Amino acid sequence: MKIYNTFTRKKEDFKTIDENKVRMYVCGPTVYDYMHIGNARPLVIFDTMRRYLRYLGNDVKYVVNFTDVDDKIINKAIKENISTKEVTDKYIKAYMDDAKDLNLDEEHTIHPKATETMDDIIDFVKELVDKDCAYESDGDVYFDISKAKDYGHLSGKNIEDLREGASNRLDDKDKGKKRNPMDFTLWKKTKKKEKSLGILLGARVDRAGI
């Protein structure tokens, strides 16, 4: 079987690191709203691939994460005056209902949550800071893209071609805090409004350890 390698831009023979063992990670949804076709499309495609690999006799470890820490989740919680957990629980359940309707093989799917791996995330971010690949600015932590060799290679974009704010993710408050406008956020400090509503998820608590 051949698959397209985004890094080399070529179709290559699919080879497992360990014989007959396949590890698949598929980026899952940010659970602040109902699933849309953009969420469903890759899930159906990779579920089909997973089934085929199992049909060929492979032992497949298949992981689809839930991003349950995010500005969109927090904003919805603030808007509806509920906790972030209430938001994410609601839309994880909706996701599972949709997955059943799409006939996805949930029996053999692992769903880690960002909030369940927060200690690992903290350690990883701290290591990046220690290696000077990331930096703290006014309580937030940003990744320094100048420290990443061939940054943009996978997307096929040169840094010079990337237009500031094109993704609609540029916050005016970040402009004076970044070394480079293209540096992206790894960690955000908790805001007063979030504290007042008790929205204290792991990724938004004050970073005493970083």
Automatic annotation (TrEMBL):
Gene Ontology, cellular component aspect: cytosol
Record-level Gene Ontology MF annotations: ATP binding; cysteine-tRNA ligase activity
Biological process (GO), any one: cysteinyl-tRNA aminoacylation
A Pfam family hit: tRNA-synt_1e
Keyword annotations from UniProtKB, A to Z: ATP-binding, Ligase, Nucleotide-binding
UniProt domain tRNA synthetases class I catalytic: residue ranges: 14-196
InterPro entries with a match to the protein in the record: Cys-tRNA/MSH_ligase, Rossmann-like_a/b/a_fold, tRNA-synt_1_cat_dom
Ligase found in the keyword field: yes
Quaternary assembly: Monomer.
Name the UniProt record assigns to this protein: Cysteine--tRNA ligase
Annotated source species: Anaerococcus hydrogenalis ACS-025-V-Sch4
Protein's gene: cysS_2
